[in-house]
Amino acid sequence: MEAEAADGPPSGLEAALSCFSFNQDCTSLAIGTKAGYKLFSLSSVEQLDQVHGSTEIPDVYIVERLFSSSLVVVVSHTKPRQMNVYHFKKGTEICNYSYSSNILSIRLNRQRLLVCLEEAIYIHNIKDMKLLKTILDIPANPTGLCALSINHSNSYVAYPGSLTTGEIVLYDGHSLKTVCTIAAHEGTLAAITFNASGSKLASASEKGTVIRVFSVPDGQKLYEFRRGMKRYVTISSLVFSMDSQFLCASSNTETVHIFKLEHLTNSRPEEPSTWTGYMGKMFMAASNYLPTQVSDMMNQDRAFATGRLNFSGQRNICALSTIQKLPRLLVASSDGHLYIYNLDPQDGGECVLIKTHSLLSSGTTEENKENDLRPSLPQSYAATVARPSTSSASTVPGYSEDGGALRGEVIPEHEFATGPVCLDDENEFPPIILCRGSQKGKTKQS
């Protein structure tokens, strides 16, 4: 859920907002600027807490945080072929990797880290950063479009399978094999995303008028939503709510659309014996005799709710999150602000803007850092506490030569939890016990 911002605010070095991304469970927001990067906690509506900021690497255009841990991945325009992995709470660099061309996007969950180049995707084991697979047989992907399921028990990967059509390749990040291909759209893909469990995959084409949801891993179409008919738009963000009940889409227009994932029953109540009811029945019956494209358009579901921005043409990303026990729509924009809306999960309609935060002027305190790294409230996806690891430390270098680095730090063995991991101090994942800075090396293709 990352976007490279275009035409950011011109005032000052730091004001040039270059990228922004929500973490995997939408409890944190990361931004990249000309001066470095910042991380914010999204636990309150009224206050935007900055939990970390760094100016060590300038001109950041990719920044991704692993849930609410201290692990953050950063890529800078000064070295666009190098990925840097940091433990920001310890103030240390875990490792860095260099690739054969510019890095376009990065995705990560608790077991896998994906690095997407224009003509290749690298899959790393996040436990020791060993390179597991290099996917080379992909069409040119100039925007770095790809998706990774945040559920580490399946780690599905999705990426475009064609330059000219909206074909999606579904790949298993565990077995490292292709699962299936999905003919999602006639036009080229613009956005793809998994739900939290990895059981659904949503997509939109460059036209931006129709959004489809498919089952995983069989690729059957489950839902079809129409975003609009009057104009084509550029979909910049597509995201499920953590409970998979809603799907949110933002674009270069002033409207953010929220769709509700529910199937209407075939048995509808009888329409009242009025002229309107009679015409409604006739209209639906007539759709059976219309051309397929027209009939499909009539049967597509419309937005359940919308959020209105006071601008258009700005790059933005959206998220659906529970903050202070209530559902919220979040929109981060290249104008340097985070917009928070109330969402009515029952009646929908137009979401009400309740707070606007500047992303370029928030302070940070040690208390905010500590609060951000504590377990979340039970309503959050990241609330469950993992089983503590009792295994002894391994003596095997964590970043071996066949993993793409010349040498590396020692990583203790770690048992993956069945649920989200509680990340705090020495128990953080990956549990780094020694880190001395940069470990250069080039990735090895497989």
UniProtKB/TrEMBL annotation:
Entry's Gene Ontology molecular function annotations: lipid binding
Highest taxon of source: Eukaryota
Name the Gene Ontology biological process terms. Answer: autophagy
Q: Which SUPFAM superfamilies match?
A: WD40 repeat-like (SSF50978)
Subcellular localization, as worded in the UniProt entry: Cytoplasm, Cytoskeleton; Cytoplasmic vesicle, Clathrin-coated vesicle; Endosome; Golgi apparatus, trans-Golgi network
Which keywords are on file for this protein?
Autophagy, Cytoplasm, Cytoplasmic vesicle, Cytoskeleton, Endosome, Golgi apparatus, Lipid-binding, Membrane, Repeat, WD repeat
Record-linked Pfam families: PROPPIN
**GO CC terms:** clathrin-coated vesicle; cytoskeleton; endosome; Golgi apparatus; phagophore assembly site membrane
| Region annotation (Disordered) ranges | 385-407
InterPro entries listed in its UniProt record: PROPPIN, WD40/YVTN_repeat-like_dom_sf, WD40_repeat_dom_sf, WD40_rpt
The annotated regions of Polar residues compositional bias extend over: 385-397
Q: What membrane topology was assigned to this protein in its record? A: Peripheral membrane protein
* Record-linked PANTHER family: WD-REPEAT PROTEIN INTERACTING WITH PHOSPHOINOSIDES WIPI -RELATED
Quaternary context: Interacts with androgen receptor (AR) and the estrogen receptors ESR1 and ESR2. Interacts with WIPI2. Interacts with WDR45. Interacts with ATG16L1. May interact with NUDC.
Similarity comment: Belongs to the WD repeat PROPPIN family.
Name of the featured protein: WD repeat domain phosphoinositide-interacting protein 1
Instruction: Tell me the organism.
Output: Callorhinus ursinus
Supply the source organism's classification.
Answer: Eukaryota, Metazoa, Chordata, Craniata, Vertebrata
